[in-house]
């Protein structure tokens, strides 16, 4: 009798697991989940109130406090074959991103036989949104310089004239912003490639002062601590930060760990990346490999968290310039795409409680 019950339970578990894997496969191929909507991540209009202190390497410097400005310039809209992006001229910060090829999942009660029985009509699915500053949510990609009175993500930048839309047949698009502070000019360039979610981001630093300077560049992802709206209760997927280095490999850093000041990850390295993860999607900064950097996490406001990486630049002589580059990926957790961006980045793929089967 006991063995019959055990067999029955095993068959039930096997069937349920197979069904969940099938549902995951359906969503992966752009079809709706049986368990509810998987929606995008969005971002807060509530500005952080605290100053985000840097790690020990840069105790004398700090990231600028997040503060609302009296008058906000209109966002700059950029469009490629895969992305619709919004840039805030203040800091040349990405404050909005729509994934044109990724659609929000329609609730299962609105589709198929169930929808017919209930009399519901499925609406056309909207694009998935990651970076945003709407609906009381915050999710931003920020960069800037520290080590002096240099341009940061709170400095007013100007758009350099040029195309903002990737035309049909065009394979690359570069959008540039210029900002200046303390006699130092920064030219931020965002280069998009057709068919790729990875964005090449370069900082050309021009020293217009009479002295040598040695600034550091920070790459930061700031996000509220909420789960993606509409995430199914049947899926226990991780939402939070992560740090990867060759030495310690893939390390999750939960929002609660950040709030508690728990920094159980490798801070100093010359490789790896930092990321924000949510179900099916990820945003990651991949700085130049082989260059020393310091990874950090901070609470930058009420229920607002940041993960970032700081890289020091070489000394820049007066009236000269130097450039440093990084890659920003923000898109689906597609293992092939992620492996092409950086080693270990595909480890962000999370199957929830089905990880042991996947």
Overview of this protein structure:
The chain has 358 residues and is mostly beta strands. It has a single domain (32-354), classed as Beta-galactosidase, Chain A, domain 5, CATH 2.70.98. Helix content is 13%, strand content 36%. The protein has helices spanning 2-28, 112-118, 255-260, 335-341; strands spanning 76-79, 83-88, 93-103, 127-129, 139-146, 158-159, 172-181, 184-193, 198-207, 216-224, 240-245, 249-253, 268-269, 273-278, 281-287, 293-301, 304-312, 320-332. The strands form three sheets. Strands 6-7-8-9-18-15-14-11-12 form a nine-stranded antiparallel β-sheet. A five-stranded antiparallel β-sheet has the order 5-10-17-16-13. A hairpin with a 2-residue loop joins strand 14 and strand 15 (281-287). The longest helix is centred in the first third of the chain and has 27 residues, at 2-28. Mean pLDDT is 83; it is low at 37-61.
